[in-house]
Amino acid sequence: MFKKIIIFGFPHCGTTILRCIIGHIENIYEIIDEVPFIDDNSIYANYDFVLCKNPYLITEHELLTLYADYIKIFIIRNPIYVFSSLNKRNEKILLNNRHSINKYIDTIKEFNKFKNTNINNLFLIKYEDMFEENYKNIKSIFDKIGFIYNDTIFDNLKYNNKMQFASDLKVPDKIPANIFHEEYRLYQINQPFINNNNNDNIHLKKNEYDILTTDQNILETYPENSNILINNYLIY
Known about the structure:
With 236 residues, the chain is of the alpha/beta class. It has helices at residues 15-23, 60-64, 79-89, 101-114, 136-145, 181-188, 206-212, 216-221, and strands at 3-8, 28-34, 49-54, 70-76, 122-126. It contains 8 helices and 5 strands, in the order βαββαβααβαααα.
């Protein structure tokens, strides 16, 4: 019987690229649609693991009940770059509640709590930590889960990654405009597996910057934010 894996966290925190990297491993069936649960479809019968991702918080109660038999990977990313990414993709519209700073703070509160909570088969990873020392931290998680793999899985350019709503699209040769959501995301997940936090690409409103550099829940995991100085904001 296959083992179920779910990746969760918050939008633009790396759930999709982590799903792609894990999906490169043999004997893992990668569900490219965003789904909250894995069914018992017969097409999974010959696989050791079935993998899905849902880029939103799963509460402790849900982890202990609905996801008790899942391997659970909770990924979080520095909100300076999360909301810069969200803003660049959504400059003309207001972010909905599921993408709000308040919802991010709810998410990182749970991440902070889980650091000291013993939940079976729950693994925590910061986006930034995945890339350290030849992927040492993410490899440690893979080894504890029991994956059989080699370093080729991290060479993202060797693969043709797919994603929800874009499974039939060809990977663009150059970066598309933001307005072409499916093509843009497909391009992104087929780039090298590197840390894309870049201070040259910070796009925040002044009030967002103020919250993301002072909120104590955020600073518990990202204390460096209190020292980030940004001279240029995207104001709209």
